């Protein structure tokens, strides 16, 4: 496969939320039997049919980069992690529905990843506070996934889901809530599977169009390359 | 009447310590995690509160604050509570939380945690056999039995930490030991890491394609199922699946390599930061401090060796000896009793404060390094256990630093323990720990540069 078809999606979240189980479920369609602590970064590949069912159907390999660690870690770990955040096409933010802190930490995770991409010098310019402005500029598709759905009592479910809905709105992202030990949640045809498919399609579109240079609206370099945009504007 | 006043003072201070432990827990230890089990937090704060009260009582002893009988009463009560917590409550809860993490045993949690606790008690009891710590006239369930065993564990811990700390402190402070790391080294390592990740990805793509093809051909299960499946897989092996296992093995090896490269890169970044730090003012100050500490460390090792070789246990405490030296050799006359009280108060106070602070900092570092959201409860309880044992044995050992008139209360309260044994044991473990830390650091230091330096 040529490097043209290369699509990179990050999977971020606190340690212990279930990223490795999730990635295993997405790529192997099987439940991970013995999850262990992720050191560094583990990669897996998902075969995705872009625009499935239409005449334009094409197969892509989506790389899911599961980056381990905690958001408040040592700065040497953060600098090393930054090497994985290059040229990212999509981000999946994973949090634990039973742990409020892990949802709050998602803001810091997304800032860490997004800043690395926008600032070419590789210096983290944020002090960790959430800033909607930075997300308004962000063109990388986001998806928020909440795990351990089965461990929430029926009574508290509504309250938790409302809170998560606000979170997803902040990121301007879709949200999926599931249990990584039960493949039923991502069964073909379910609403979760449709959302997932739509997310990957969006990722591929952004990637594909940027390669072609034909994308008009929301070109991420608009603010930086003022002169160059004029050439790219009218293409169709 | 005075007893009530004294008790209220002590209880107030206990509540204050409890609050401090609570805050420390929330702000430092658990600042990235969500506290769901308040039991853990309460146990930690209670252990901290009672341990600090013991130190407070020592200070009161030296300063002569409060009534002597009420002091004695509070000592005894404090000791009983602390032993109760350290031997009964904390181990039980550690077992309970360990069992809760295992999914299979979820139903009979309490039963299994009781089982674990009984195992712990058995080993705890057996601990007393090889050591000459008791005189035979003590009964089975006396306080001395428990204290002596707790003391052994605590003293071992203290000596291990001191030994490692004494060696590690100059090693970290002094910039002489810093390996030279340049940006090109880091970039080269990062490139290798990304190349390894790319190789893993290309191999996984092959596996995914092969699996998809087999799936589409209708060969859903490529794993042999059942008896006939096993026989079949022995005789006829599909070439596709054989290839797959080979590729999978290669992937596993590459993933192991990527983990190692990641850890090495983290190490290089940390070293680079340390180099930058050493160029600042603070860094240089610590560098000089490091030289002093290395001298101190060598002296301590030397003294420990002398103590063991010549079977010598210090009879006098540093305060009295200092006063003796000043009086005898320097000829300065002053009111011995008055000054010895104040000086020993300051000295003991400094020892207490630095050891508490040092312990809390070490615990925090340990906690950040090894905990995750699953095991955080167990680790905090383990730390509370270590902290309690550490403080109890500090009380044991601090007896040696106090002039004889203040030692009596500790001797009375703790019963007739062989204190000399504990000091000897401390020296032995300190020596072993310091020497093995030196060896360990030397090996680690030697091994690292050869891997990273660009030729």
UniProtKB/TrEMBL annotation, chain A:
GO terms for molecular function: GTP binding; GTPase activity; protein homodimerization activity. It comes from the Eukaryota. InterPro entries: P-loop_NTPase. Keywords: GTP-binding, Nucleotide-binding. GO terms for biological process: B cell differentiation; intracellular protein transport; natural killer cell differentiation; protein stabilization; regulation of Ras protein signal transduction; T cell differentiation in thymus. One of its GO terms (cellular component) is endomembrane system. Gene3D superfamilies: P-loop containing nucleotide triphosphate hydrolases. Pfam families: Roc. Homodimer. Interacts with GPR89; the interaction stabilizes GPR89. Interacts with RAP1GDS1. Belongs to the small GTPase superfamily. Rab family. Required for KRAS signaling regulation and modulation of cell proliferation. Regulator of KRAS prenylation, and probably prenylation of other small GTPases. Required for lymphocyte development and function. Not required for myeloid cell development. PANTHER family: DRAB5-RELATED (PTHR24073). This is Rab-like protein 3. The gene is RABL3.
Automatic annotation (TrEMBL), chain B:
It is found in: Membrane. GO terms for molecular function: voltage-gated monoatomic anion channel activity. It is a multi-pass membrane protein. GO terms for cellular component: Golgi cisterna membrane. Residues 142-207 form the Golgi pH regulator conserved domain. Keywords: Membrane, Transmembrane, Transmembrane helix. The chain crosses the membrane at residues 6-26, 38-63, 75-98, 110-127, 147-169, 288-310, 343-368, 380-402, 422-444. It holds the Pfam family ABA_GPCR. It comes from the Eukaryota. Belongs to the Golgi pH regulator (TC 1.A.38) family. This is Golgi pH regulator. It comes from Monodelphis domestica. The gene is GPR89A.
């Amino acid at each position: 496969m040529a490097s043209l078809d290369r699509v990179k999606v990050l999977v971020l979240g606190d340690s212990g939320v279930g990223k490795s189980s999730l990635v295993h479920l997405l790529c192997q369609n099987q439940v991970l039997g013995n999850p262990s602590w992720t050191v560094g970064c583990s990669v897996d590949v998902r075969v995705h049919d872009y625009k499935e069912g239409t005449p334009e159907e094409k197969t892509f390999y989506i790389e899911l980069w599961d980056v381990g660690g905690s958001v408040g870690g040592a700065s040497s770990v953060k600098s090393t992690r930054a090497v994985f955040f290059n040229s990212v096409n999509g981000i999946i933010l994973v949090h634990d529905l039973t742990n409020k802190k892990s949802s709050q930490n998602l803001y810091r995770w997304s800032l860490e990843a997004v800043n690395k991409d926008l600032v070419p010098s590789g210096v983290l310019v944020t002090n960790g506070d959430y800033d909607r402005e930075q997300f308004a500029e962000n063109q990388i598709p986001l998806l928020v996934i909440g795990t351990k759905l089965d461990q929430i009592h029926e009574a508290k479910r509504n309250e938790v889901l409302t809170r998560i809905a606000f979170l997803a709105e902040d990121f301007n992202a879709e949200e999926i809530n599931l249990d990584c030990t039960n493949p039923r949640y991502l069964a073909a045809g379910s609403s979760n599977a449709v959302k997932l498919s739509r997310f990957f399609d969006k990722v591929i579109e952004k990637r594909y169009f940027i390669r072609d240079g034909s994308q008009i609206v929301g070109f991420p370099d608009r603010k930086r390359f003022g002169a160059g945009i004029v050439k790219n504007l009218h293409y169709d | 009447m005075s007893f009530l006043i004294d008790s209220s003072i002590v209880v107030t201070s206990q509540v204050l310590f409890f609050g401090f432990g609570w805050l420390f827990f929330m702000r430092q230890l658990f600042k990235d995690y969500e506290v769901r089990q308040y039991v853990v937090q309460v146990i930690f704060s209670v252990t901290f509160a009672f341990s600090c009260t013991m130190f407070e009582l020592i200070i009161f002893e030296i300063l002569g604050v409060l009534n002597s009988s009420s002091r004695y009463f509070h000592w005894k009560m404090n000791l009983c509570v602390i032993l109760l917590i350290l031997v009964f409550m904390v181990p039980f809860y550690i077992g309970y939380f360990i069992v809760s993490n295992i999914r299979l045993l979820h139903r009979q949690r309490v039963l299994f945690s009781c089982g674990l606790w009984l195992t712990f008690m058995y080993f705890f009891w057996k601990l007393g056999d090889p050591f000459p710590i008791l005189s035979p006239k003590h009964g089975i369930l006396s306080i001395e039995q428990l204290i002596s065993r707790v003391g052994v564990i605590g003293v071992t811990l203290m000596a291990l930490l001191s030994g490692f700390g004494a060696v590690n402190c100059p090693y970290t402070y002094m910039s002489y030991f810093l390996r030279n790391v340049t940006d090109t080294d880091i970039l080269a390592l990062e490139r290798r890491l990304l190349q390894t990740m790319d190789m893993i990805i290309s191999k996984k793509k092959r596996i995914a394609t092969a699996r998809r093809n087999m799936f589409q051909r209708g060969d859903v299960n490529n794993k042999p199922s059942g008896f006939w499946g096993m026989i079949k897989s022995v005789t006829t092996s599909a070439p596709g699946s054989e290839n797959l296992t080979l590729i999978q093995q290669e992937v596993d090896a590459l993933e192991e390599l990527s983990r190692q490269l990641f850890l090495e890169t983290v190490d290089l970044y940390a070293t680079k930061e340390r180099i930058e730090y050493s160029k600042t003012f603070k860094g240089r100050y610590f560098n000089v401090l490091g030289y002093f500490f290395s001298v101190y460390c060598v002296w301590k090792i030397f003294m420990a060796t002398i103590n063991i070789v010549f079977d010598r246990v210090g009879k006098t405490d540093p305060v009295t000896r200092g006063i003796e030296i000043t009086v005898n050799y320097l000829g300065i006359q002053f009111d011995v009793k008055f000054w010895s009280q104040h000086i020993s108060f300051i000295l003991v106070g400094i020892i207490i404060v630095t050891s508490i602070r040092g312990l809390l900092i070490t615990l925090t570092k340990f906690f950040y390094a090894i905990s995750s959201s699953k095991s955080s409860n167990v680790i905090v309880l383990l730390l509370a256990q270590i902290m309690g044992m550490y403080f109890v044995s500090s009380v044991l050992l601090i007896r040696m630093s106090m002039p004889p008139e203040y030692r009596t209360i500790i001797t009375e309260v703790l019963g007739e323990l062989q204190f000399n044994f504990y000091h000897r044991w401390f020296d032995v473990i300190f020596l072993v720990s310091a020497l093995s830390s030196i060896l360990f650091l030397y090996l680690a230091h030697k091994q690292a540069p050869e891997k990273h330096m660009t030729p």
